[in-house]
Design brief:
Strand content: under 5%
Structural class: mainly alpha
Helix content: 55-70%
Radius of gyration: 14 Å
Largest sheet: 2 strands, antiparallel
Family: Belongs to the UPF0410 family.
Distance between the termini: 52 Å
Organism: Paenibacillus rhizophilus
Order of helices and strands: HHEEH
Keywords: Cell membrane, Membrane, Transmembrane, Transmembrane helix
Shape: globular
Number of domains: 1
Strand order of the largest sheet: 1-2
Protein name: GlsB/YeaQ/YmgE family stress response membrane protein
Subcellular location: Cell membrane
Number of helices: 3
């Protein structure tokens, strides 16, 4: 049951991070879940503070997901801006 909660909370955190950044996450709902779970991993380096939902500390997870989306957006933009000769 905790795996299902992890998917749900990870998806919500990824979705919220996408809304805050104003960018679409590639991959739709799967991308949201991945961004939320990886964001919580990155946010884990910030510490364990704030409200906790199903093994996720919401605020550090959200900050980590925002950083992840910013990095992915930057990489996607730099890859899309190249022209082939």
């Amino acid at each position: 049951m905790s795996f299902i909660w992890m998917l749900i909370v990870g998806g919500i955190i990824g979705w919220l991070a996408g809304l805050i950044m104003g960018r679409d996450i590639p991959g739709g709902i799967i991308g949201n879940i991945i961004a939320g779970i990886l964001g919580s991993w990155l946010g884990g380096f910030l510490g364990s503070w704030g409200p906790r939902v199903s093994d996720f500390y919401v605020l550090p997870s959200l900050i980590g997901a925002i950083v992840l989306i910013a990095i992915v957006s930057l990489v996607m933009r730099s890859m899309g801006g190249r022209t082939r000769s």
